[in-house]
Amino acid sequence: MLANIYSSSVPGACPFIIRVQPHQRINLTLTDFSVARADQNPLGPVHPETCKQVAIVKELHDNGSSTVTAICGGRERETIVYMSTTNTIEVQFNQSYAQQAVIKYQGIQTGIVTLQFDT
User: Are 18 and 5 within 8 A, CB to CB?
Assistant: First the structure.
């Protein structure tokens, strides 16, 4: 299992390329420091109607197509925001919001598990 944290506050920063082993997928967790922790917010989680775009994830697929997904903050302090279908993604931070958040990635094992039972 691989886990790292990325944040960028450099204007015009290049995207982060995240690559894990071919049999793994990438799980992204957003920690948004602009949102109060649940134990500090008596009104509970905030669910704004608009997306505070923290980053954009671009995922290239084997057939040459790509998927672009906005990562939205402003709702919960920490939440899983993306699970890839491939082992490589590109993350580009929105520079106006990136100082308020970090994204942690983790390589998640996928595949078929074979169980053998002795009789």
Answer: no
Per-residue pLDDT tens over the stretch 9-32: 455 568 889 999 988 999 999 988
The token duo for 82 is 């993306």
Tell me how far the alpha carbon of residue 2 is from its chain's centroid. Answer: 14
The single residue listed with the structure tokens 């057939």 is: 63
User: Any idea of the CA torsion for 79, 102, 86, 109, to the nearest 10 degrees?
Assistant: -70
Tokens 């920690």 locate to 31
Torsion angle, CA of 5/43/40/80, rounded to 10 degrees? -20
The answer as to CATH 2.40.420 being correct for domain 3-109 is no
- Distance between CA atoms of 68 and 4, rounded to whole angstroms? 22
3-state secondary structure of 88: strand
Which token pair is 65? 């197509």
pLDDT at 1: 40
